[in-house]
Amino acid sequence: MIHHILSAVLIACTLLMPAITTAGDKHPKKAATVKEVKAMSEQDQTALALSAAPAHIAKEAGIMIYGADGKLTETRKSANGFTCIPTVMNLPDPDPMCMDPAAHQWLTDIMNNAPKPTNTVPGIAYMARGGSHFEKDGKVVMSGDGAKVVKEPAHWMVMWPFDPAATQLPTGPNPSGTYIMFEGTPYAHLMVYQDPRKMK
Q1: Within its chain, how far is the Cα of 126 from the centroid?
Q2: Do 195 and 17 contact (CB within 8 A), yes or no?
Q3: How far apart are CA 133 and CA 105, in angstroms?
Q4: Burial class (CB in 10 A: 0-12, 13-18, 19+), 120
Q5: Phi and psi at residue 4, in whole multiples of 5°?
């Protein structure tokens, strides 16, 4: 499956950027920063986490939510290999993610400041509610120091070290909706601005 996804992306790369929200979107009453997510009920955190993925993935995905200690705790085991969490960054806008084991390892590594990701196969991650990134001097950067926060529309990602020179893919958001984030670092990966909820 991943081979077909990568082939389609690398050959075409002509996806149109969808609208960031739709009329049916329901946002939680509280802004989904880590601190506020901790204060949400288990039910609300669960709903937020599952909103990251397409319905056919979410219905069998594992769930991790924030406990009273502020750490993620598994509340439902995965039946399909995917795990959903209610938020990734400590920012006001909801940014839940649902990911397969390789992407989960990638995220764990970057959160732990590992020198490079240790997943040995490409990972797939969904962020159907969108997310945010940091920009400085017109470039997407990993650190928020001196950078501005830029919102992103609904998207999915391939967590694998893509090389801009080899793939001829852009290194920043563009009208095609596809680009390599964190280019020039071990954590370079493919961003695709396509709403996962519309994928089958």
Answers
A1: 5
A2: no
A3: 20
A4: exposed
A5: -70, -40
Q: Please report which helix (H) or strand (E) contains residue 130, including its range.
A: none
Q: Find tokens 């990911």 and name the residue.
A: 99
CA end-to-end span of the chain: 12
For residue 36, the surrounding DSSP H or E stretch is helix 34-39
Token readout for 192 is: 């695709």
Distance CA 89, CA 113 (A): 14
Instruction: Name the strand (E) or helix (H) holding 49.
Output: helix 42-50
Say how far apart CA 132 and CA 135 lie, in whole Å. 10
Q: In the structure encoding, which two tokens stand for residue 196, read together?
A: 């996962």
- Whether 6 shows a pLDDT value over 80: the answer reads no
Contact status, residue 131 vs residue 173, Cβ threshold 8 Å: no
pLDDT band for position 9 (50/70/90)?
Answer: very low
- Band (34; pLDDT cuts 50, 70, 90): low
* Residue 195 identity (one-letter amino acid): D
Edge-to-edge order in the sheet of strand 139-141: 139-141, 131-136, 148-152
Whole-angstrom distance, CA of residue 82 vs CA of residue 172: 27
Q: What is the pLDDT of residues 133-147, one digit of tens each?
A: 999 988 999 888 889
Residue 56 CB neighbour total at 10 angstroms? 11
